[in-house]
């Protein structure tokens, strides 16, 4: 009788344990935080803790589309007969586009280093009508979008510790250069644990909202847990330190789950958790008096939720995700990110 009990038990473990079978995990959703108060600083890019192969060279190209409309709504009327554009109420109203490229190289199986750089563009865009229709279709609040002219650009994000993040015309500029190094110091069939160190070179321009104008340093831990044959869980935590008293140290965290039943495709759900590098005491939380005024904007953590898919075929990897912060409203209205990468081994 005992064998009839043990056979299904071991069969279950064989099918669902991460220590059996081929590993089809493809990593968490790689990407840059595109919310302006965070964008100008270094952010953990969501790298996998798993090691690679010695002499692996990976290069990628990422494109980001983002939209954000925020207004001081506590004193605005609920409805208006005609649209207007009183800039004293505008916090941010723009669309952003960014192109990113980078390379990463495994000097050893356990040690990988990389460099990333981006080109940012801010403009009035063309998505305001779509966003208003989308919110109306599902009964979501438009957050005063319907009171202002569409497809405008004006950014004036207050900051208790320095100059506001200000832009009143379209701008294009290169961002900061990110240098990072990852060391996978513990790994077995179920777990990969890595340390990440990074340094940001201030090549971006604060006037164009593509950089803070200061160096950043970062350090943290990355954990991959292959919980089952088709499921990998990701956790990351670290700190980003700006080289100036103008900005606060930032916590960067990640919780993610990847469902990978097949070799070619994965489905990812991820939450990026970050604290703000700046504070502001002039704007109530939520940009709307209906939320109350117990908290100030930027005083609560960012809790961006990302949903995406990853396609992988041999050395090619294609990733698409949609991102927003619907919990604390500490992020853009939405971010659409697309990344294509290719990996080769220079020794083979």
SSE blueprint and pairings:
Elements: H1 2-16, H2 36-39, E1 56-71, E2 90-106, E3 111-123, H3 128-138, E4 154-157, E5 165-167, E6 171-174, E7 177-187, E8 191-201, E9 216-228, E10 231-242, E11 250-259, E12 265-274, E13 302-313, E14 316-324, E15 334-345
Antiparallel strand pairs: 1-2, 1-15, 2-3, 2-4, 3-6, 3-7, 4-5, 7-8, 8-9, 9-10, 10-11, 11-12, 12-13, 13-14, 14-15
Q: Can you describe this structure?
A:
- With about 350 residues, the chain is mainly β.
- It is about 10% helix and about 45% strand.
- The longest helix has 15 residues, at about 1-15.
- The chain is globular, with a radius of gyration of 22 Å.
Number of domains: 1
- Share of helix, binned: under 10%
Instruction: Output the strand order for the largest sheet.
Output: 1-2-3-7-8-9-10-11-12-13-14-15
How many helices in DSSP terms?
Answer: 3
């Amino acid at each position: 009788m005992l064998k009839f009990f043990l056979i299904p038990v071991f069969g279950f473990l064989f099918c669902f344990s991460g220590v059996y079978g081929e590993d089809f995990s493809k990593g968490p959703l790689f990407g840059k935080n595109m919310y302006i108060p965070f964008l100008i600083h270094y952010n953990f890019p969501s790298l996998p803790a798993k090691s690679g192969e010695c002499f692996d060279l990976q290069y990628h190209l990422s494109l980001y589309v983002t939209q954000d409309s925020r207004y001081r709504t506590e004193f605005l009327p609920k409805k208006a007969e005609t649209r207007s554009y009183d800039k004293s109420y505008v916090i941010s109203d723009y669309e952003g586009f960014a192109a990113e490229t980078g390379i990463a190289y495994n000097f050893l199986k356990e040690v990988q280093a990389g460099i990333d750089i981006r080109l940012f563009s801010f403009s009035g865009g063309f998505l305001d009508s779509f966003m208003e229709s989308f919110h109306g279709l599902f009964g979501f609040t438009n957050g005063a979008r319907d009171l202002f002219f569409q497809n405008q650009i004006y950014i004036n994000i207050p900051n208790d510790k320095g100059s506001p993040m200000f832009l009143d015309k379209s701008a294009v500029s290169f961002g900061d250069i990110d240098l990072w190094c990852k060391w996978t110091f513990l790994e077995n069939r179920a777990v990969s644990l890595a340390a990440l160190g990074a340094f940001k070179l201030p090549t971006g321009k604060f006037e164009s909202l593509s950089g803070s104008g200061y160096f950043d340093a970062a350090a943290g831990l990355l954990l991959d847990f292959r919980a089952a044959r088709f499921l990998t869980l990701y956790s990351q935590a670290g700190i980003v330190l700006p080289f100036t008293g103008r900005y606060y140290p930032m916590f960067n965290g990640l919780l993610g789950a990847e469902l990978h039943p097949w070799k070619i495709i994965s489905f990812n759900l991820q939450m990026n958790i970050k604290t703000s590098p700046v504070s502001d005491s002039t704007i109530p939380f939520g940009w709307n008096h209906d939320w109350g005024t117990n908290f100030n904007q930027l005083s609560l953590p960012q809790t961006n939720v990302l949903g995406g898919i990853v396609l992988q075929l041999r050395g090619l990897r294609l990733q698409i995700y949609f991102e927003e912060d619907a919990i604390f409203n500490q992020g853009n209205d939405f971010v659409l990110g697309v990344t294509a990468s290719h990996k080769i081994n220079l020794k083979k």
